[in-house]
Structure formats: structure tokens, C-alpha cells
Amino acid sequence: MGDGTSRGSRRRVLRATGWGSAVVLAGCVSVGEDTSQAGGESSVDRPADWCFDRLDDTVPDVEANATSIDGVERKPEGELASKEEASYQCGPADGDHCGTCTYYIDDRDGDAVGACTEVAGEIRSSDWCALWAPREEIQDE
Ligand code: SF4
């Protein structure tokens, strides 16, 4: 288990490199949905963006003003990546999903979707994007 300083440094590095990673990974994100992981959705192969029209572009204040699971503050609205820029996909990737990401903001208003400190709009815990980084409790295992 590291101290707060090293976690902060690691997070800064992840945030600094995340956008570059998203660009690099944009061409290799799986389009199919891994149905064996979070979400429990059907095994039908669907487009990576099939859920976009179910997610509002705006996030309720209770989530917009919240910090992530690991205490990361949400970026200002104008600095958030779009889902397309982050290569967001509807469903997990290799078992990784928003619910295990350090940037995920849990649902705070009971609608079963949360938000993200890095990506705009509502975010489902069962989805994934190229900025994914493990929650601290996973890093420390
Ligand atoms: S994986 Fe999900 S929670 Fe993590 S940065 Fe991407 S959209 Fe945000």
C-alpha cells in the first residue's frame, strides 16, 4: 500500500498520459460486448455505441460535483473528453469496466448510471473507455 504522495503522482501520470493512450487505442477497441462480465447483458454482438442514446449528455449536479470512487475531482465541463474521443464502448473490455475505474463517479441519484471525472455525460458502470485506469484498491492488491 503506497502513501498518498505516490498515489497522487501515479494519478497525475495516468491523467497526463490518458488522452494519448485513448488516441493510440482508438483503432483497437473491441466492438463486440464481453457479456461474461459486468452488466449481465445479452451476448448479441452489437455496435460499440449501441447504448449512447440511453445516456444523457448532461450529468445531474449531485454527480457533476462529486469526486470519483478514488477521490479524483471531475474536470470542468469544457475539458471533459467526449465518448468518441475516449473510445467509449457499451460494455466491458477484457473484464475492465467503469465500475472498476479510478475515475468512475458512482450513481448518486438512483437512476443506475453514474458519471466520470474525465468523460462527458452519463456513464454506465458496465461500460469501458480507453482512459480506464484501475481503482486504487485494485492497484494495491
Ligand atoms: S473507463 Fe469509464 S470511468 Fe474510467 S475513464 Fe473511461 S468512462 Fe470514465
Summarize the structure.
This protein has 141 residues and is an all-alpha fold. Helices cover 21% and strands 3% of the residues.
Shape: globular
For the record, the CATH architecture stands as: Irregular
The CATH fourth-level homologous superfamily:
High potential iron-sulphur protein
Largest sheet: 2 strands, antiparallel
Q: Give the overall pLDDT as a whole number.
A: 80
CATH topology: High-Potential Iron-Sulfur Protein, Chain A
Question: Which bin fits the share of residues in helices?
Answer: 10-25%
Low-confidence segments, given as residue ranges, are: 1-14, 16-40
Text of the CATH class: Few Secondary Structures
Order of helices and strands: HHEEH
Count of discrete structural domains: 1
Molecules bound to protein: iron/sulfur cluster
Number of strands: 2
Region (Disordered): 66-89
InterPro entries: High_potential_FeS_prot, HIPIP_sf, TAT_signal
GO molecular function, one term: electron transfer activity
Keywords: 4Fe-4S, Electron transport, Iron, Iron-sulfur, Metal-binding, Transport
Q: Would you write up a description of this structure?
A:
The protein is an all-alpha fold. It has one domain (1-40, 47-141): High-Potential Iron-Sulfur Protein, Chain A. The chain contains three helices and two strands, in the order ααββα. The protein has helices spanning 4-25, 61-64, 136-139, and strands at 104-105, 115-116. It has a two-stranded antiparallel ribbon. The termini are close together. The model is unreliable at 1-14 and 16-40 (pLDDT under 50). Iron/sulfur cluster binds next to loops. GO terms for molecular function: 4 iron, 4 sulfur cluster binding; electron transfer activity; metal ion binding. Residues 69-137 form the High potential iron-sulfur proteins family profile domain. Pfam families: HIPIP. InterPro entries: High_potential_FeS_prot, HIPIP_sf, TAT_signal.
